[in-house]
């Protein structure tokens, strides 16, 4: 198919993106319990503000229960405490965001998120505690912080399992909070902590089924111990390369999501904020050839495609917050015009305006053809993006809808000291 045919098809079905047209997405979501909201980078202002607006509408109009994000459980739970008005919680959103000390801090400590958190707090103040909307982190990186939280919880509750937790935590102490250092020793010197963290998780899960499990602190202890188990596996596998570490991470996020859904009951509905590479079905990309799975694929497989609605995001050019290496200082980086013939380039050439596309039963077969689709990570060098930033994708299979912003700008980060990488 020629590029002109792609452009004509986009022109035929594209809907101008306005605040009013977002209601069309809410309508299309219908009764789905899972709404996956993506992003083409971790540092674009418009992706955050549009997801916030969609999330507010889903909460108001569809009764969604919580927002779960690509972030650490301990840091996000402090935000959750703020929006739910927990005793001794932070005084304002910016104070709650001080918990995001792990690089890249800008992903969640940014000014775009503050209005949403304040809106959630106001929304929750008008509701009973069990009806309040939550904000949770699904990611796997917070091994040491999660272990600390488990120990604190067990000390607070006077649990007999405290010694199991302390033993598990002490196993990781020699590695000075360096996941890669732990991974090297675990992979090459058979010095791992797997038995200790699995025993801890089993103890907490046994307690869950035999006692009072109505409080979020108990849920947090279980998810933090699950983080410890899967983070141990993640760092263990990471040094060996291959798809295993990716799969462990995404499988963990789906497992944590299931625990959240179970906790909130049969009528629970989840909004998930993650990068396109996580929420767009991996089976519609070249990831499948590498043996990789992702959240979008797994949630669809486990819950039925009709019960899941995935929205991808993209841009033609602008600026973005990123680092030039892992752990490097954040900076605003120019995003060049999309590579010729890519999905973003064709969207631009079909009209240099913001737009929405819906992929449904009436979608053109052309959108099921493979095309390069840009993905920008927290590490980004635009000089080399055409060699690794375009994911071959079948757009109509990867997403249910797509939001395109022609020119985007970088996030406005809160200034935090980035000490954890």
From TrEMBL:
It comes from the Bacteria. Signal peptide: none annotated. Coiled coil: none annotated. Transmembrane segments: none annotated. InterPro entries: Emycin_Estase, Hydrolase/PRTase-associated, UCP036794_erythomycin. PANTHER family: ESTERASE, PUTATIVE (AFU_ORTHOLOGUE AFUA_1G05850)-RELATED (PTHR31299:SF0). This is Erythromycin esterase-like protein. It comes from Ammoniphilus resinae. The lineage of its organism: Bacteria, Bacillati, Bacillota, Bacilli, Bacillales.
